[in-house]
Amino acid sequence: MHSIRTKFTLLTVVSIIIAMSIATLIGVFSIKELGRSDADQMLHLKCTTGAMNLESYFDSAEHSTETVATLIQDNFENMPYDQLDSQVEHTRQLFNKIAARLPGVLTYYFRIDPQFSPTVKGFWYVKTAENDFHEYPTTDLIPYNDNISAAPKWFSVPKMIGKSIWLPPYYTENLGMRVISYNVPVYWRGQFVGVVGIELDYETLAREVEKIRLFDNGYAFLLDADSNIVYHPQMDTLLQYGEKVAMDTPDRIVGSNHVQYHFNGISKEAVWLPLRNSMQLYVTVPLSEINSGWQTMVRRILFASLVILLIVSLIMMRFGERITKPLCDLTESAKQVADGKYEFVLNYNGNDEIGLLTRTFKQLVTHTKEHISKLNRQVYIDAMTSVHNKASYEAYIQKLQEQIEDPAKKLEFAVGVFDCDNLKHINDVYGHDKGDVYIKTASQLICHTFKHSPVFRIGGDEFAVIIRNEDFQNRDELFRLFRQKREELCAAATSAWEQAHVTMGLAVYDAQIDAHVIDVARRADQCMYENKRLRKEKQRLTKELRKTEADG
C-alpha cells in the first residue's frame, strides 16, 4: 500500500505533468506555427528583396538600351536612307555615354541587317581591362542572309519576334566567356534595320543572384521565360535541370508560388516570383534549416518544462514530506500503542486537521494508559500488597517460556519462592487483620531486597521472584542480605504479627534439565519446603535444648 506522501506526490506530479503537457503542446504548436509563419515570411521577403534588386539591375540595362533604341527609332522616322551612316555614328556617341555608366556591361552594339544595308554594318564595343570600351571589328552577317535561324540569337530572335528580349546565357567566342544580352529591334518605315543591344557579364549577374541567400544552405536561381536556366549554383552540372523538375512535381503545395519538394535527397521549400523581363527568380531552402529555429525553441521549451517539472516535483515532495511527516509520526505512534508501548513523542502542534488529530490521539492514549493502568491493577496487581498477583505471574512465565523456546536467545534467570510461616497461628490468635499486616510486612521485606526483580503473590502466604540481569548476578549476596534483614526485622518487632518469618527457596534455570519455566519454579518450591523443614527441625531442637537446660 502506498503512503499518503507517495499518493500526494504522485497525484501532484501527475497533475503537473498533465497541465504542463497541455501547456507545452499548446506552446509547441504555437511556436511551430509561428516559426513556420516567420520562416515563410522570411523566405517570401528574401525572394521579394532579391527580385527587387534584380529588377533594378535589369531595369538599368533595359532602360539604357531602350533609351538608345527609342532615340534611334525617333531619328529614323524621317531619315533619308543615304544618311544611315551618319545616324549610326550619332548612335555610337550616344550609346558610349550611356553604356559606360551601366554595371556589368561587357559589350554594346548596333548591328545593321545586311538585307537593309550591305555596306553599313554598325558597331561593336567591348570593355577592356582598364574599364574602357574599345571598338572591335564587326563580324560579317552576310552568310546568314538566306538562313536567319543560323544567325546569332542576339540578332535572329529580336528580328523574328519583332520586340525586345532578354536572351538566356550563351557562350560568345569573341569574348571567350558566358554572357546574357538584352536586344531591341529597330525599324525604318516599317522595315527591319538592325538590333541595338548590350551584353552583360554573366558573373556579375551570378554574383547578384548569389547574394540572395537564406540560412546556411539556402540559395537562389534564375530561369528565363522558357524555363531555361539563367543561373543556378550547380550551373555546370545536371542538377540544375533536376531541381526545376522536382519543383514541378512537389510533395506539397504550400501556397501560390510556394511548394515543398525533394531534390538530391533533401526536403526543401521554395518560393518564386516572376520578373518584369519574364524571368523567374526562385529561392529555395532545406526544410531542416527552416524548421531548425522553431525546433530549437521547442527543445528549449521541453528542456525548461522538464527542469520546471523536476524543481516543482522536488518542492512538492518536500512540501508533501512536511505535510505527511506528522501523519507518519502519528501512524508510527499508533503502531507502538497497538504493541502496548505508550511512550512516544509527537511534537506537531499545528492549528490544522493534523494538529487536532495529533492532540486528540495523545489525549486518547493518555486516557487509555490510565484505564489500562487501572485494569492492570485490578487484573495483575494484588490489592493487599500492591505486588503482582498470580495472573501476572502466569503471564510473565508464559512470556519467559516463549523466550526459552527461541534458540537464538540464551537466558539466565532464577526463581525464588517465599512462604510466610505461622500465618494460620497469627490469624487464629490475633485475627485476620493482624494476619494481613504480617503478609504485608513479608511482602515489603521481599521487595526491599529484590528491588530490580518482579515480585508476585502467588498464594495467600506465598510469594515468588523472577531474578534476572543484575539481581541474577548478585543472587547469593541478595539471599544473604534477605536473611539478614529478616532476622533484624524479627528481632526489632514488638508484636508477633510485626515479625516476618519467611522461608525461601531458590532454583537457577538450567537448559539441560529445565524444558519449562515451571520446572525451575517447581525446583525452587521444593527447595523452599526443604528449607522450611530444616527451619522447623532447627526450631524444635532449639526448644528441646532450652527445655533441657531449664530442667537441668
Automatic annotation (TrEMBL):
<dbReference type="Pfam" id="PF00672">
    <property type="entry name" value="HAMP"/>
</dbReference>
<feature type="transmembrane region" description="Helical">
    <location>
        <begin position="301"/>
        <end position="320"/>
    </location>
</feature>
<feature type="transmembrane region" description="Helical">
    <location>
        <begin position="12"/>
        <end position="31"/>
    </location>
</feature>
<feature type="domain" description="GGDEF">
    <location>
        <begin position="411"/>
        <end position="544"/>
    </location>
</feature>
<dbReference type="InterPro" id="IPR029787">
    <property type="entry name" value="Nucleotide_cyclase"/>
</dbReference>
<keyword id="KW-0472">Membrane</keyword>
<dbReference type="InterPro" id="IPR033479">
    <property type="entry name" value="dCache_1"/>
</dbReference>
<dbReference type="InterPro" id="IPR000160">
    <property type="entry name" value="GGDEF_dom"/>
</dbReference>
<dbReference type="InterPro" id="IPR003660">
    <property type="entry name" value="HAMP_dom"/>
</dbReference>
<dbReference type="GO" id="GO:0005886">
    <property type="term" value="C:plasma membrane"/>
</dbReference>
<dbReference type="GO" id="GO:0007165">
    <property type="term" value="P:signal transduction"/>
</dbReference>
<dbReference type="GO" id="GO:0043709">
    <property type="term" value="P:cell adhesion involved in single-species biofilm formation"/>
</dbReference>
<dbReference type="GO" id="GO:1902201">
    <property type="term" value="P:negative regulation of bacterial-type flagellum-dependent cell motility"/>
</dbReference>
<keyword id="KW-0812">Transmembrane</keyword>
<dbReference type="Pfam" id="PF02743">
    <property type="entry name" value="dCache_1"/>
</dbReference>
<dbReference type="InterPro" id="IPR043128">
    <property type="entry name" value="Rev_trsase/Diguanyl_cyclase"/>
</dbReference>
<keyword id="KW-0175">Coiled coil</keyword>
<dbReference type="Pfam" id="PF00990">
    <property type="entry name" value="GGDEF"/>
</dbReference>
<dbReference type="InterPro" id="IPR050469">
    <property type="entry name" value="Diguanylate_Cyclase"/>
</dbReference>
<feature type="domain" description="HAMP">
    <location>
        <begin position="321"/>
        <end position="373"/>
    </location>
</feature>
<protein>
    <submittedName>
        <fullName>Diguanylate cyclase (GGDEF) domain-containing protein</fullName>
    </submittedName>
</protein>
<dbReference type="GO" id="GO:0052621">
    <property type="term" value="F:diguanylate cyclase activity"/>
</dbReference>
<keyword id="KW-1003">Cell membrane</keyword>
<keyword id="KW-1133">Transmembrane helix</keyword>
<feature type="coiled-coil region">
    <location>
        <begin position="524"/>
        <end position="551"/>
    </location>
</feature>
